[in-house]
Amino acid sequence: MGIKHQKFMTEAMKEAEKSLNNGGIPIGAVLVKNGEIIGRGHNKRIQLGSSIFHAEMDCLENAGRMKSLDYQNCIIYTTLSPCAMCSGAIILYKIPMVVMGENENFKGQEQYLKDNGVKLLNLNLDSCKKILGTFIESNLKLWNEDIGI
Amino acid sequence: MGIKHQKFMTEAMKEAEKSLNNGGIPIGAVLVKNGEIIGRGHNKRIQLGSSIFHAEMDCLENAGRMKSLDYQNCIIYTTLSPCAMCSGAIILYKIPMVVMGENENFKGQEQYLKDNGVKLLNLNLDSCKKILGTFIESNLKLWNEDIGI
């Protein structure tokens, strides 16, 4: 994997770890524009009692209001394949590329993203699989709630 | 239209009007479970400087954390056809039906919703078209930002 992608995925992982340390679901994301992190976030289902603050959504929210042109120069890094909601947000704002840490614990709407012209790169990282996989083993009901099962 | 649908769409319109009165984009939504409103909300792009609080998202967030089975007894009422993000959230949580006020000011991911088994009903209401249409005329840049154009 490119050094650049590794660096930003490490930041997304820091967000996942922050969530875990706060008792939350360990998924993290960062939004990068022209090589600079402009938003970061993590899943806050537990922390905020939230149904919409998945990692990517929290990250987009923390990036703040932006124009469509700004999103077109962005890459979103997320430790997990994006679900339907997060994929929808990525498509709404026409973010052209998603770099994910893994898609084994959960595979989101990857075909839908591709069909809408979003480029996907799966780094397939053991670190991302392990932090979430271990969490899911001990929190299956909560996890199913998070992915709408 | 059924009296039931009219009643809940009127509540969604109240949310749209509340947003307008607060200087925001006039789109509203309510989530109804077994004939009872369990969440309501409106677009808060302006009010919160938010990129994710569309009406449907605010409504889902205000309904709080719920299990998948609970969503399966829900209908979401929204004054406008749901965008990709909101459609994604509806699909994630498997909400089986969307009742919309109109789809002339904006037509969202209706086919994608249908393809995922979501039932759609468009009430095609002049009141919904007018409140948003008038707003868009005076706030086109803001509106384009909201729909990712």
Task: Please give a structural write-up.
Chains A, B: InterPro entries: CMP_dCMP_dom, Cytidine_deaminase-like. Chains A, B: Keywords: Cytoplasm, Hydrolase, Metal-binding, Zinc. Chains A, B: This is Cytosine deaminase. The structure is a homodimer of 149-residue chains. Chain A is an alpha/beta fold and 149 residues long. Chain A has one domain (5-144): 3-Layer(aba) Sandwich (Cytidine Deaminase, domain 2), CATH 3.40.140. Helix content of chain A is 48%, strand content 17%. Chain A contains eight helices and five strands. A five-stranded mixed sheet of chain A has the order 2-1-3-4-5. In chain A, strand 3, helix 5 (84-92) and strand 4 form a beta-alpha-beta unit. In chain A, helix 1 (3-21) runs parallel beside helix 7 (126-138). The longest helix of chain A is centred in the first third of the chain and has 19 residues, at 3-21. The model of chain A has no long low-confidence stretch (mean pLDDT 97). At the A-B interface, helix 3 and helix 5 of A face helix 3 and helix 5 of B.
